[in-house]
Design a protein that fits this description.
Blueprint (H helix, E strand, L loop, with lengths): L2 H14 L4 H13 L8 H15 L1 H14 L5 H25 L1
């Protein structure tokens, strides 16, 4: 499989992750507006807010990478199209860490 086809597949997979993005943003806003309990550790709050920030910024990451992949069709398109997947991996890792602390 050539690099162009692989980068298009990466961008399509990253675009599919945008389907539940609206619901994720609603949940993130509710998480920010929610009341904190006094027993929460600082590390748990850090993980929760890191997840909220990183997952909220995914749309920006995807759009920037999509625009760069369109503009730079031949130069580093595979690396640029893989960045949203790494971002999604970071979101999943933060979610798993949140589950472990909770």
């Amino acid at each position: 499989m050539n690099k162009k086809a692989l980068s298009i597949i990466f961008l399509v997979i990253g675009g599919l992750a945008l389907l539940p993005y609206t619901f994720l943003m609603i949940a993130n806003i509710m998480q920010i507006a929610g009341v904190r309990s006094e027993g929460d550790s600082a590390l748990l709050l850090f993980v929760v807010y890191a997840f909220v920030i990183v997952s909220s910024l995914y749309l920006i990451t995807y759009l920037v990478c999509l625009i760069l992949a369109i503009v730079k069709r031949k130069q580093g398109m595979l690396l640029i199209s893989a960045i949203p997947l790494f971002h999604l991996l970071l979101v999943i890792v933060l979610l798993l860490v949140w589950f472990l602390f909770d």
